[in-house]
Specification:
The chain has a single domain, classed as Glutaredoxin, CATH 3.40.30. By secondary structure, it is α/β, with parallel strands linked by helices. It is 39% helix and 24% strand. The protein starts with a helix and ends with a helix. It has a six-stranded mixed sheet. A two-stranded antiparallel sheet has the order 5-6. The longest helix is centred in the N-terminal third of the chain and has 27 residues. The chain is built from six helices and eight strands.
């Protein structure tokens, strides 16, 4: 019996430490904290429109503590883009919660900006989409109706017949200046 209690305590401790390692940098980092890469991804729902580049954020509709301030921040950043850039760059919010109402992710995304796109994924598809981005998410220990999740912002670029994950930004607030420079560089590659 004692060993079972110790094992449970040890597992909970590991989970708590893992969550803290991912969440604490979000609140205490300021600056760029970005990763540059060229990782090809094959996900049909991402960049399936006329846009060349997408800023992608994973979260869930109704998330007040993490998603709301970040999507609000993205909305302000998006508004500052010139019209030519807005025609080629979009924002996609991918819902990790598989809500019962399939229109909820789109409604949530549009609440921040009319041009934002919300993507609904069913439970069988969520892992397929989160795996290439290394997105962590799980039900919250405190409130089972909420999720703990990665707060990174991703840039994916469409180039001919492929899609590539090009940048990951992990620090919040996201560095608008750096993201704008990265977007301009990617748009000039085409």
């Amino acid at each position: 019996m004692k060993s079972r209690v110790y094992a449970t305590f040890f597992i909970l401790l590991i989970i708590l430490i893992s969550v803290l390692v991912m969440i604490i940098p979000t609140f205490f980092t300021n600056g760029i904290s970005r990763i540059e890469l060229k990782q090809e991804i094959d996900l049909p729902l991402i960049l399936n429109d006329e846009k060349d580049i997408k800023l992608i954020f994973f979260g869930y509709a109704g998330c007040a503590d993490i998603c709301t301030p970040r999507l609000d921040y993205l909305s302000k950043m998006y508004e500052k883009l010139d019209e030519e850039t807005k025609q080629r760059v979009g924002v996609e919010f991918i819902d990790i919660s598989a809500p019962i109402d399939t229109t909820l992710p789109q409604k949530f995304a549009e609440a921040f900006h009319k041009d934002f796109k919300g993507i609904y994924l069913d439970k069988n598809t969520i892992r397929k989409y989160t795996k290439p981005f290394k997105v962590y998410f799980s039900n919250s220990f405190i409130d089972k109706t909420e999720y703990d999740h990665t707060t990174n912002l991703y840039i994916v670029k469409k180039d001919k017949n492929k899609k590539e994950l090009r940048y990951i930004y992990s620090a919040y607030p996201y560095d608008m200046t750096q993201i704008n420079l990265d977007l301009k560089e990617l748009l000039n590659e085409s």
